[in-house]
Specification:
Blueprint (H helix, E strand, L loop, with lengths): L4 H9 L1 H7 L4 H9 L5 H9 L3 H11 L7 H11 L3 H7 L1 H7 L6 H6 L3 H13 L12 H5 L15 E7 L9 H14 L2 E7 L3 H12 L9 E7 L7 E3 L5 E3 H6 L14 E6 L39 H4 L2 E7 L4 E2 L3 E2 H13 L5 H12 L3 E2 L3 E2 L1 E6 L12
Parallel strand pairs: 1-2, 1-3, 3-6, 6-7
Antiparallel strand pairs: 4-5, 7-12, 8-9, 10-11
Length: 394
């Protein structure tokens, strides 16, 4: 009996992804040989092919002809060779059946439902004595690294985190608490942390440009930029004197064209803005980024340019989170967004990728009503190509 039409369709539909990412490893071949999906002659032919992609294509051509059990055995082989994401991509039900991730009794007791975790974090965020404390990885997690094909590789130290907090003349409640919470989080996650507070526009341009040109990025796995600036809009921030600056200017400095040492590495931008009190309505007219310079108000000739045909990898590997709308905060606690962000990451970084944690953060944030009984929202843009685990031993 042959493989079903639906199974063949799955292999065809995902052939490009499989060809790009499949590792025809000894572990995978051993499972296929054990269940007689591969013959000795087929194994020898695979071993003789030196090019990885061609080897993957050769295996994918062979599987549909190897009977009704070939598809499920291939799923099991993917799981046992730690290629879980490809297994889940092909058939989620079979992936659950064969996945190799098991927990000891003590670890099972520690694993709780998503709702329980969210409730615990909600309680933590409301505590008066709020402290960011990252939960360490278990021994089992340290001994079972994630497949490098599906996650960004993280070295030690992980990278650099730049945290900018700007108090202006009318909006300053809790900014320094937010900066402190973010700094504590990323230091515990083994990021080298740089803090910049209460800068003028020229000082902002100068320090961000200097960071983008820092040679240390060559030895880093990732980069984080956090901007905390109450009273601004989603696409701009205000310096300490109330002059507005487009956020996009800063982000361009770290793209593949202007910061090649961060190409193919995850770049995370957490931006906390909002216009809770109508502050932006009575500020002076925004200062456009193409009319300002770090010193004399003219854009330098070397300023970053981002043409429409910029190749994908130069804009790629970015996750941008912007918290806008009515921002709940107070002087003694900091903002609801930063407390949620740091709490969720601190608790879940050991076993969840960043995008999973962002979903949880957004859900928790919606539990809180801010001034005027309006709910806060997150805005996400991403060009990440893989999963990103902030705590990893890959």
């Amino acid at each position: 009996m042959a493989m079903t039409d639906d199974q063949k369709k799955q292999l065809r539909h995902n052939r490009v992804r499989l060809t790009d990412d499949l590792e025809v490893s000894e572990e995978l071949i051993a499972v296929l040989m054990q269940d007689r999906i591969l013959t000795a002659e087929a194994k020898d032919a695979l071993d003789a092919e030196p090019v990885r992609k061609r080897k993957a294509q050769q295996l994918l051509d062979t599987l549909p002809r190897r009977g009704k059990n070939a598809f499920e055995t291939f799923i099991r082989a993917l799981c046992e060779s730690k290629q879980d994401e490809l297994a889940e991509l092909l058939d989620e039900q079979l992936y659950r059946k064969h996945r190799t991730g098991t927990h000891s009794d003590s670890e099972e007791e520690e694993i709780t439902s998503r709702g329980d975790v969210m409730n615990k974090i909600l309680v933590k965020v409301e505590e008066e004595s709020f402290i960011v404390q990252v939960t360490p990885m278990t021994t089992s997690q340290k001994q079972n690294p994630r497949p490098p094909n599906f996650a960004y590789s993280i070295s030690q130290p992980c990278g650099r985190a730049m945290i900018i907090g700007i108090e202006n003349r009318e909006n300053s409640l809790g900014i320094r608490h937010d900066v402190q919470h973010l700094s504590s989080l990323f230091q515990q996650l083994n990021f080298e942390t740089v803090i910049k507070l209460d800068l003028t526009s020229s000082e902002l341009f100068s320090c961000v440009k200097e960071e983008a040109q820092n040679e240390a990025h060559s030895n880093c796995s990732a980069f984080v930029l956090c901007i905390i600036n109450y009273g601004s809009r989603s696409d701009e921030i205000f310096d300490r004197d109330g002059k507005s600056i487009k956020i996009e200017y800063f982000l361009r400095l770290f793209d593949g064209r202007n910061c090649s040492s961060l190409t193919d590495k995850p770049k995370l931008y957490f931006i906390h803005t909002g216009d809770p009190d109508g502050f932006t309505r009575h500020l002076e007219q925004p200062m456009e980024t193409d009319q300002c310079d770090m010193v004399d108000g003219t854009l330098p000739s070397h300023a970053p340019h981002q043409p429409d045909d910029l190749v994908v990898h130069e804009k790629g590997d970015v996750l941008q989170i912007v918290s806008t709308s009515d921002v709940w905060r107070n002087e003694s606690k900091g903002s609801w967004f930063v407390r949620c962000l740091t709490s969720v990451i601190a608790v879940n970084a050991r076993n969840q990728d960043l995008e999973e944690m962002i979903f949880m953060i957004n859900s928790i944030i919606e539990h809180k009503e801010s001034k005027g009984q309006r709910l806060q929202r997150l805005h996400k843009k991403t060009t990440l190509r893989k999963k990103f685990y902030l705590m990893s031993i890959i």
